């Protein structure tokens, strides 16, 4: 089971998730986050009293973080999961910048 509540304050939308973040609930949570994003406001997903996060839940958190949703957590377990997801996203961003795709291809000597 889970509960998702929404608060709008200070130009941001905060969705608070309590309970479980598991496969059968991820579609509804993703749709709720996307609806909040469509309002051109900052969006945060606060994980509070979340007892279980399965692989589908972790995958959703990674996807939401890549979309620019701030993922927050309270509690040791959820804080650890969120910290590892944020670190993975930062590593991915660094590798994209450092892999040469941000520089134009130059072939031969022009000049």
Task: Note down, in words, how this protein is organized.
The chain contains 3 helices and 4 strands. It is an alpha/beta fold and 111 residues long. α2 (55-66) links the parallel β3 and β4.
Mean pLDDT equals: 84
Largest sheet: 4 strands, mixed
Number of strands: 4
End-to-end Cα distance: 66 Å
Q: In percent, how helical is the residue content?
A: 40-55%
Order of helices and strands: EEHEHEH
Question: From the helix content, strand content and strand pairing, which structural class follows?
Answer: alpha/beta
Low-confidence stretches: 99-111
Summary, kept brief:
With 111 residues, this protein is an alpha/beta fold. The chain has helices at residues 23-37, 55-66, 76-98, and strands spanning 2-9, 12-21, 42-53, 70-73.
Structural key phrases:
3 helices; 45% helix; disordered C terminus; four-stranded mixed beta sheet; alpha/beta; 111 residues
SSE layout:
Blueprint: E1 2-9, E2 12-21, H1 23-37, E3 42-53, H2 55-66, E4 70-73, H3 76-98
Parallel strand pairs: 2-3, 3-4
Antiparallel strand pairs: 1-2
Helix pairs in contact: 1-2, 2-3
